[in-house]
Amino acid sequence: MSNITDPAKLLRTAHTHTEQTQQQMKRKCGVGTNLFILLFCYGPGPHPRSPPANPPSHVYIGVSNFSSLTLRVWLSDRSNNTYRTNMSQYSGKITFYEGKCFTGRKLEVRGDCDNFQDRGFMNRVNSIRVESGAWICYDHPDFKGQQYILEHGEYPEFQRWNSHNDHMGSCKPIRMHGEHYRIELFEGGNFSGQCVEMCDDCPFLQSRGFSKNCINSVKVYGDGAWVMYEEPNFRGRMYVVERGHYCSHNEWQAQNPNIQSIRRVANYF
After folding, report:
1. 8, 85, 152, 171: which is deepest, by most CB within 10 A?
2. Which helix (H) or strand (E) holds 33?
3. Which among 146, 173, 200 is the end of a domain?
């Protein structure tokens, strides 16, 4: 633990200089890590959602060994009751191009974008560069429609992200990344029926004991996100699930419960 007198400055630095911030924080904390969790200690009362103008006298840095930089806030009162809320997260960077092979007009995004047209960019995308982070892209605005998972790398044409056309209307970063992956898949809704727990990729769920290709509810633990596919070998329509409980396939925006393969989201910063 180490006292930090200007948390707002630290947050801004973390957003723009990930690697530099990691090295700086390692020196301050004296611990090797890839993810830093900010701990703000307050007395009882409302918990601010942004860095305070006048920070408290004791602001500490806590460390957790996940694999990407995600900043969170832990608020503790003097009774040692602890509350957690998201403060900020390093969301990465993705660039969309109207033309193939990274040509034409471009749109750079560093966080949630619910409508490309609001940024003066038509919803036609033929190539993408993901410079950092992992992203869910949707073929309609407002995070609706078919989902595509884009991880670190270059996609010179829309077939590379398994699309059949160049429609793209919104995107957001996947906010759960890390080394600790665990998911429970349930055959029935509301976490009923046969259940299989997994911690690694599976190209064919029936090989793990599922008698059917239907997954109706899911519990995602740890700090890793998953991609579920309607077909074996990570093909077909895909759905991203982050940490949380999904009591029905409608909650991951699927029209049916068909899931036959699943893999972890890879993330690079």
Report:
1. 171
2. none
3. 173
Closest Cα partner for 61 from 41, 82, 88?
41
Could you please report the per-residue DSSP string of 64-94?
E--SS-EEEEEEE-TT--EEEEEEEE---EE
Return d(Cα 256, Cα 141) in angstroms, integer.
22
Q: Bridge-partner residues for 197, per DSSP? A: 184
Give the number of C-alpha atoms closer than 13 A to the C-alpha of residue 159, restricted to the C-beta side. Answer: 1
Give the span between the Cα atoms of 81 and 75, in whole angstroms: 8
User: What pLDDT sits at residue 149?
Assistant: 93
Q: What is the pTM of this model?
A: 0.65
What pLDDT is recorded for position 147?
Answer: 94
Burial status of residue 145 (CB atoms within 10 A of its CB: 0-12, 13-18, 19 or more): middle
List, for residues 19-37, the tens digit of each pLDDT value.
444 444 434 333 333 333 3
Q: Which residue type does 213 have?
A: N
